[in-house]
DNA sequence: CGGATTTGACCTGCGC
DNA sequence: GCGCAGGTCAAATCCG
């Protein structure tokens, strides 16, 4: 089947390309301020009316597209979860049960080698391995979700900053054996009430890719949401890698951004929450559609879903 | 001055 | 048991 081409064409979410505003229909303006439409002169009042009409139409179109995008994002999340399920299943088959120093370590290497191109690396339960649960029963039972997010950063950006909407406190840095670049260890600044940790390290293969590994789930809203919105609009406050990627997309368009968690609210203080939301949606769509790996991964997921639907 | 970051020391798990 | 490597601690330092 030809899912990839379908994805390529249908998922062109880039606002600039997906939304021709038909401004060419706007009547031409004459030097005296009047307009010529179909050979007829229009007054300034009529021009204002036309512009307002156009504005309303564009606003409605914008709203519709934003809704479409939101729905698409939800579908994307569902598909992503399926992809992660499939990937974790196939990984379980690949990994031999012996010669593993640490399950997390080799898992990490696998991901670095194979998966970082997807942007979102995984959202797998680390405690699913039988071996782990046997050797480290106490820790692994307690251990919460582990998810990985990879970010392509500006070449000039040498720091290990991954913007995901939360505030982090660095508590350590270590140079690991298999990677010349140091690994930074962060704790959620809401600790100890929030148990989430994150490890950030540049990919050994591609120095422009930063891999962030999240452990645990936040039990609070991100500071950016606490500040800018009166109430939570998201269904869950748990860590959502897709949202992390959304924020990360902003780093591309705002390479001069400052501290990680304060990025959105501090850079756009004049925006209301609706504008922020729309801005985020547009940025996410742009960053996603620019990434050929995302469309490829999505195509694979869709084809997998289709084939499974056929078999059912 | 208080909070965040840095960095060397220490702890712990794992393989040999 | 020893050595190695990843992870964490905590004192020193930095910064607003």
TrEMBL record:
It comes from the Eukaryota. It is found in: Nucleus. InterPro entries: WRKY_dom (IPR003657), WRKY_dom_sf (IPR036576), WRKY_plant (IPR044810). The keyword Coiled coil applies. Residues 106-117, 228-242 have a biased composition (Low complexity). GO terms for molecular function: DNA-binding transcription factor activity; sequence-specific DNA binding. Pfam families: WRKY. GO terms for biological process: defense response to bacterium; defense response to fungus; regulation of defense response; response to molecule of bacterial origin; response to salicylic acid. Keywords: Coiled coil, DNA-binding, Nucleus, Transcription, Transcription regulation. Residues 1-27, 89-136, 217-277 are annotated as: Disordered. GO terms for cellular component: nucleus. The keyword DNA-binding applies. Residues 1-17, 243-255 have a biased composition (Polar residues). Residues 157-223 form the WRKY domain. SUPFAM superfamilies: WRKY DNA-binding domain (SSF118290). Residues 44-82 form a coiled coil. This is WRKY DNA-binding protein 40. It comes from Hibiscus trionum.
């Amino acid at each position: 089947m030809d899912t990839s081409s379908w994805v390529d064409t249908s998922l062109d979410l880039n606002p600039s390309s997906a939304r021709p505003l038909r401004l060419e229909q706007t009547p031409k303006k004459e030097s005296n301020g009047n307009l010529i439409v179909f050979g007829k002169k229009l007054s300034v009042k009529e021009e204002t009316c036309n512009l307002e009409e156009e504005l309303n139409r564009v606003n409605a179109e914008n709203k519709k597209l934003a809704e479409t995008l939101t729905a698409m994002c939800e579908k994307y999340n569902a598909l992503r979860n399926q992809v992660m399920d499939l990937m974790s299943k196939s990984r379980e088959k690949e990994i031999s049960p012996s010669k593993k120093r640490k399950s997390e370590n080799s898992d990490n290497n696998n991901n670095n080698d194979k998966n970082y191109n997807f942007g979102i690396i995984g959202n797998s339960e680390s405690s699913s391995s039988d071996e782990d649960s046997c050797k480290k029963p106490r820790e692994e039972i307690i251990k919460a979700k582990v998810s990985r997010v990879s970010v392509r950063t500006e070449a000039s950006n040498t720091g290990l900053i991954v913007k995901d909407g939360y505030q982090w406190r660095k508590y350590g840095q270590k140079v690991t054996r298999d990677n010349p670049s140091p690994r930074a260890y962060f704790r959620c600044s809401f600790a100890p009430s929030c148990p989430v940790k994150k490890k950030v390290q540049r990919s050994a293969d591609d120095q422009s890719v930063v891999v962030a590994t999240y452990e645990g789930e936040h039990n609070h809203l991100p500071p950016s949401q606490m500040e800018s919105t009166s109430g939570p609009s998201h269904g869950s406050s748990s860590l959502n890698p897709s949202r992390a990627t959304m924020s990360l997309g902003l780093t591309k368009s705002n390479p001069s951004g400052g501290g990680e968690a304060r990025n959105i609210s501090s850079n756009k203080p004049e925006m209301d929450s609706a504008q922020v939301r729309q801005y985020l949606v547009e940025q996410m769509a742009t960053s996603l559609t620019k990434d050929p790996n995302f469309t490829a991964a999505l195509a694979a997921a869709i084809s997998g879903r289709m084939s499974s639907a056929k078999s059912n």
